[in-house]
Amino acid sequence: MSDTSLATRRTTGSTGFFANWRQYIIYIGFVVIFLVFAATLNDKGFLNPNNLLNIVRQTAMIAVMAIAMTFVLSAGEIDLSVGAVAGLTTVTVAMAIAAAGPVAGVFAGLATGLAVGMFNGWLTTRIGIPSFLTTLAMMGIAKGVAMWISDTAAVPILSPGYAWVFGGGSLGPVPVLLLWTLVLGVIGHVVLRRTGFGRRVLATGGGETAARYSGIDTRSVKFRVLVISSMAAALAGMLYAGRLQSGRFQLGEGDELSVIAAAVLGGTSLFGGMGTVIGTIVGAMMIGLINNGLILMGLDFSQQLIARGGIIILAVALSQKKS
């Protein structure tokens, strides 16, 4: 190959990167925010390994739900019930463990997610209610059921084995929560990018009518992604319960906003047809990083909300392609 050809390829690759820099904004933003916090908060322990591992622990449940939310948004739907479903699952798991042991708790948690997901999917794809309204209603129903069956009291989990596997354990310095996130991230990435189901999800969100004419059962795709989302929310609830060793209806409250923000920050389109699991995980970690840094800065909670919202808006605005 001639020197001229090599120079042309280098120039083209460089130009391509700078021309498409917006799609990398989440990774650039993550590195920039990390470096800023590292430089300004080093004396407050930001770079302490325990603090960094705490960021992972606090973000893992958001990441787990956001991985599934990537599929939902990519298919052109939305799930606002994930936080409430996680809270309900903590209660059903804790009550089942108290009654019949940890194995029963695992089955109760998975059954909770499956039941909610199938109900959301049925209302959305068979009855025709928009997923926004279906899952908004389910948010209230799940929270109400959790409050009712627990009598608004915390339900303790007295099973060290369950607590270790679902959130509280670690292998050496590595938290089990990080392993859960990595394993589910790999599975989610492979399914979305390397399987027929993933391609059908993206096709459905990119153009439902065209996808239907090409032979894709779009109702089945949407039903499945809503079930996957609720199952992921249930798993997040099981991790909450294991880490905090209790079931409480308040757990997961408000998580739906962070979950959707993580997916959108990572490059998933709210209008469907585009999603990336790796970007979603980085988006979730970025939110955790921002939360941790703002707390170490000593900002009031109100100030944290303002700063966090501003940073997220800036990141999303920069990532949008100009027409």
Percent strand equals under 5%
| Percentage of residues assigned to helices | over 70%
CATH topology: ABC transporter involved in vitamin B12 uptake, BtuC
Low-confidence stretches: none
Estimated structural class: mainly alpha
Q: What are the secondary-structure elements, in order, as H or E? A: HHHHHHEHEEHHHHEHHH
Q: Report the major sheet.
A: 2 strands, antiparallel
Under the CATH scheme, the architecture is: Orthogonal Bundle
Distance between the termini: 37 Å
CATH class: Mainly Alpha
Number of strands: 4
Characterize the overall form.
globular
Strand order of the largest sheet: 1-4
Chain-averaged pLDDT: 88
> How many separate helices?
14
Tell me the count of domains. 1
Radius of gyration: 21 Å
Protein name: ABC transporter permease
Transmembrane segments: 24-42, 54-73, 93-119, 131-150, 170-192, 221-240, 260-282
Pfam families: BPD_transp_2 (PF02653)
InterPro entries: ABC_transp_permease
